[in-house]
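Q: What does the predicted 3D structure of NmrA-like domain-containing protein look like?
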Amino acid sequence: MVKVAVAGGAVGGIGLYIVEAIVEAGNHDVVVLCRRASHHPVLDKLGVPIVATR
């Protein structure tokens, strides 16, 4: 299984839809990259880790 990093998936918008689609497909592990540490209820529910730079 390939690990995919998605930038901008923690703030909503298109990045979140991309993360949801990758997780639903079930072929890859997903990590979300963001500038600040945050929690997003959808990402928490999907079990997707968030990696923050600050």
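A (community wiki): The structure tokens above were generated from the sequence. The radius of gyration is 10 Å. The beta strands are 2-7, 28-34, 50-52.
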